[in-house]
Structure prediction request, 204 residues.
Amino acid sequence: MQTLRARAVIASVAAATVLPLSLGALAPQALADDTTPVSTNASGTPSPFGPGCSSLPKNGKGSIDAMSKERVARAAATNPKLTKLALALKDAGLTTKLDDAKHITVFAPTNEAFDKVPKEKLATLMKDKAQLKKVLTYHVVDKTVTSSELPNGSFKTMEGSTLKTSGSGTSFKVNDKANIVCGDIRTANATVYLVDTVLMPPSS
Prediction:
Protein backbone atom coordinates (compact mmCIF):
# COMPACT_ATOMS: atom_id res chain seq x y z
CA MET A 1 0.00 0.00 0.00
CA GLN A 2 2.85 2.40 0.88
CA THR A 3 4.51 1.63 -2.45
CA LEU A 4 1.31 2.51 -4.34
CA ARG A 5 0.92 5.74 -2.34
CA ALA A 6 4.57 6.66 -3.03
CA ARG A 7 4.08 6.09 -6.73
CA ALA A 8 0.96 8.26 -6.71
CA VAL A 9 2.80 11.10 -4.96
CA ILE A 10 5.72 10.90 -7.43
CA ALA A 11 3.30 10.94 -10.37
CA SER A 12 1.50 13.99 -8.97
CA VAL A 13 4.76 15.90 -8.47
CA ALA A 14 5.95 15.03 -11.99
CA ALA A 15 2.68 16.18 -13.55
CA ALA A 16 2.80 19.47 -11.61
CA THR A 17 6.33 20.09 -12.89
CA VAL A 18 5.77 19.14 -16.53
CA LEU A 19 2.55 21.13 -16.97
CA PRO A 20 4.04 24.62 -16.32
CA LEU A 21 7.03 23.74 -18.51
CA SER A 22 4.68 22.73 -21.30
CA LEU A 23 2.68 25.92 -20.95
CA GLY A 24 5.89 27.97 -20.91
CA ALA A 25 7.00 26.35 -24.15
CA LEU A 26 3.67 27.10 -25.77
CA ALA A 27 3.42 30.73 -24.65
CA PRO A 28 5.95 32.25 -27.07
CA GLN A 29 4.30 30.47 -29.99
CA ALA A 30 0.88 31.73 -28.95
CA LEU A 31 2.27 35.26 -28.68
CA ALA A 32 3.87 34.97 -32.10
CA ASP A 33 0.58 33.82 -33.60
CA ASP A 34 -1.38 36.70 -32.05
CA THR A 35 1.11 39.52 -32.65
CA THR A 36 2.30 40.87 -35.99
CA PRO A 37 5.67 42.60 -35.50
CA VAL A 38 6.03 46.11 -36.96
CA SER A 39 9.47 47.24 -38.10
CA THR A 40 10.39 50.64 -36.70
CA ASN A 41 13.44 52.85 -37.02
CA ALA A 42 15.38 54.52 -34.18
CA SER A 43 12.85 57.34 -33.86
CA GLY A 44 9.94 54.93 -33.53
CA THR A 45 8.54 55.72 -36.99
CA PRO A 46 7.37 52.68 -38.99
CA SER A 47 10.03 51.78 -41.53
CA PRO A 48 9.46 52.16 -44.42
CA PHE A 49 6.62 54.67 -44.00
CA GLY A 50 4.21 56.59 -46.20
CA PRO A 51 1.08 56.01 -48.30
CA GLY A 52 3.05 55.14 -51.42
CA CYS A 53 4.77 52.14 -49.85
CA SER A 54 1.68 49.98 -50.41
CA SER A 55 1.99 50.44 -54.18
CA LEU A 56 5.46 48.87 -54.31
CA PRO A 57 5.74 45.19 -55.28
CA LYS A 58 5.23 42.93 -52.27
CA ASN A 59 8.03 40.61 -53.37
CA GLY A 60 10.47 40.12 -56.22
CA LYS A 61 11.99 42.97 -58.22
CA GLY A 62 11.22 46.39 -56.84
CA SER A 63 10.06 45.12 -53.46
CA ILE A 64 11.46 46.53 -50.22
CA ASP A 65 13.36 43.31 -49.61
CA ALA A 66 14.82 43.15 -53.13
CA MET A 67 15.90 46.80 -53.04
CA SER A 68 17.78 46.23 -49.78
CA LYS A 69 20.11 43.83 -51.59
CA GLU A 70 20.91 46.15 -54.55
CA ARG A 71 23.03 49.28 -54.96
CA VAL A 72 20.80 52.33 -55.24
CA ALA A 73 20.84 52.97 -59.02
CA ARG A 74 20.36 49.28 -59.72
CA ALA A 75 17.52 49.17 -57.18
CA ALA A 76 15.84 52.08 -58.99
CA ALA A 77 16.20 50.33 -62.34
CA THR A 78 14.31 47.28 -61.05
CA ASN A 79 11.53 49.25 -59.34
CA PRO A 80 8.43 49.90 -61.49
CA LYS A 81 7.88 53.25 -59.70
CA LEU A 82 11.38 54.53 -60.54
CA THR A 83 12.02 53.53 -64.16
CA LYS A 84 12.12 57.14 -65.38
CA LEU A 85 14.59 58.08 -62.68
CA ALA A 86 16.77 55.13 -63.62
CA LEU A 87 16.73 56.23 -67.28
CA ALA A 88 17.60 59.81 -66.29
CA LEU A 89 20.50 58.62 -64.13
CA LYS A 90 21.84 56.60 -67.04
CA ASP A 91 21.54 59.53 -69.47
CA ALA A 92 23.31 61.83 -67.00
CA GLY A 93 26.12 59.33 -66.47
CA LEU A 94 25.37 59.01 -62.76
CA THR A 95 24.55 55.31 -62.43
CA THR A 96 28.05 54.16 -61.50
CA LYS A 97 28.71 57.24 -59.36
CA LEU A 98 25.69 56.58 -57.17
CA ASP A 99 26.23 52.83 -57.01
CA ASP A 100 29.85 53.37 -55.91
CA ALA A 101 28.92 55.92 -53.24
CA LYS A 102 28.55 54.96 -49.57
CA HIS A 103 25.89 55.93 -47.03
CA ILE A 104 24.10 58.42 -49.28
CA THR A 105 20.47 59.51 -49.25
CA VAL A 106 18.41 59.84 -52.42
CA PHE A 107 15.17 61.78 -52.59
CA ALA A 108 13.98 59.77 -55.58
CA PRO A 109 11.34 61.25 -57.90
CA THR A 110 8.78 58.65 -58.91
CA ASN A 111 7.49 58.20 -62.46
CA GLU A 112 4.49 60.32 -61.45
CA ALA A 113 6.88 63.09 -60.40
CA PHE A 114 8.47 63.13 -63.86
CA ASP A 115 4.99 63.13 -65.42
CA LYS A 116 4.28 66.45 -63.67
CA VAL A 117 7.10 68.17 -65.57
CA PRO A 118 5.79 69.76 -68.81
CA LYS A 119 6.71 67.51 -71.74
CA GLU A 120 8.73 70.13 -73.61
CA LYS A 121 10.67 71.10 -70.49
CA LEU A 122 11.37 67.45 -69.67
CA ALA A 123 12.49 66.70 -73.22
CA THR A 124 14.87 69.67 -73.13
CA LEU A 125 16.23 68.60 -69.75
CA MET A 126 16.84 65.03 -70.88
CA LYS A 127 18.88 66.29 -73.85
CA ASP A 128 21.06 68.60 -71.73
CA LYS A 129 23.37 66.20 -69.90
CA ALA A 130 25.02 68.89 -67.73
CA GLN A 131 21.71 70.34 -66.56
CA LEU A 132 20.19 66.88 -66.06
CA LYS A 133 23.16 65.92 -63.90
CA LYS A 134 22.72 69.14 -61.90
CA VAL A 135 19.03 68.45 -61.27
CA LEU A 136 19.53 64.81 -60.33
CA THR A 137 22.45 65.43 -57.95
CA TYR A 138 20.27 68.02 -56.21
CA HIS A 139 18.22 65.02 -55.05
CA VAL A 140 21.24 63.33 -53.44
CA VAL A 141 22.70 64.00 -50.00
CA ASP A 142 26.17 62.65 -49.26
CA LYS A 143 25.19 61.22 -45.87
CA THR A 144 22.49 59.08 -44.30
CA VAL A 145 19.40 61.17 -43.56
CA THR A 146 17.29 59.53 -40.88
CA SER A 147 13.56 60.06 -40.45
CA SER A 148 14.25 61.78 -37.10
CA GLU A 149 16.01 64.57 -39.05
CA LEU A 150 13.10 65.23 -41.42
CA PRO A 151 10.83 67.45 -39.23
CA ASN A 152 13.21 70.41 -39.55
CA GLY A 153 16.00 69.26 -41.84
CA SER A 154 18.51 71.18 -43.92
CA PHE A 155 20.93 69.19 -46.05
CA LYS A 156 23.68 70.08 -48.49
CA THR A 157 23.19 68.13 -51.70
CA MET A 158 25.71 66.55 -54.03
CA GLU A 159 24.86 69.36 -56.46
CA GLY A 160 26.07 71.90 -53.90
CA SER A 161 22.84 73.63 -52.92
CA THR A 162 20.68 72.97 -49.88
CA LEU A 163 17.32 71.26 -49.67
CA LYS A 164 15.04 71.39 -46.66
CA THR A 165 12.55 68.97 -45.16
CA SER A 166 9.61 69.58 -42.86
CA GLY A 167 6.65 67.74 -41.36
CA SER A 168 5.90 65.29 -38.57
CA GLY A 169 4.81 61.73 -37.90
CA THR A 170 4.81 60.03 -41.28
CA SER A 171 3.93 63.13 -43.34
CA PHE A 172 6.88 65.09 -44.69
CA LYS A 173 7.67 67.54 -47.48
CA VAL A 174 10.88 68.49 -49.25
CA ASN A 175 11.32 72.22 -50.00
CA ASP A 176 7.61 72.63 -49.16
CA LYS A 177 6.85 71.24 -52.63
CA ALA A 178 7.46 67.51 -52.84
CA ASN A 179 5.69 65.00 -50.61
CA ILE A 180 7.61 62.00 -49.35
CA VAL A 181 5.27 59.22 -50.46
CA CYS A 182 7.39 56.34 -49.19
CA GLY A 183 10.32 56.94 -46.90
CA ASP A 184 13.24 55.21 -45.25
CA ILE A 185 13.73 52.53 -47.90
CA ARG A 186 17.13 50.92 -47.52
CA THR A 187 19.34 49.78 -50.38
CA ALA A 188 22.80 48.24 -50.14
CA ASN A 189 24.45 51.67 -50.05
CA ALA A 190 21.72 54.28 -49.59
CA THR A 191 18.58 55.43 -47.84
CA VAL A 192 15.81 56.30 -50.28
CA TYR A 193 12.80 58.61 -49.90
CA LEU A 194 10.36 58.50 -52.81
CA VAL A 195 9.04 61.98 -53.65
CA ASP A 196 6.13 62.98 -55.89
CA THR A 197 7.77 66.05 -57.46
CA VAL A 198 11.03 66.64 -59.33
CA LEU A 199 13.04 69.15 -57.33
CA MET A 200 14.87 71.97 -59.12
CA PRO A 201 18.10 73.52 -57.76
CA PRO A 202 17.78 77.19 -56.80
CA SER A 203 20.01 78.25 -59.70
CA SER A 204 17.93 76.43 -62.33
Q: What stands out?
A: Residues 10 and 74 are 66 Å apart (CA to CA).
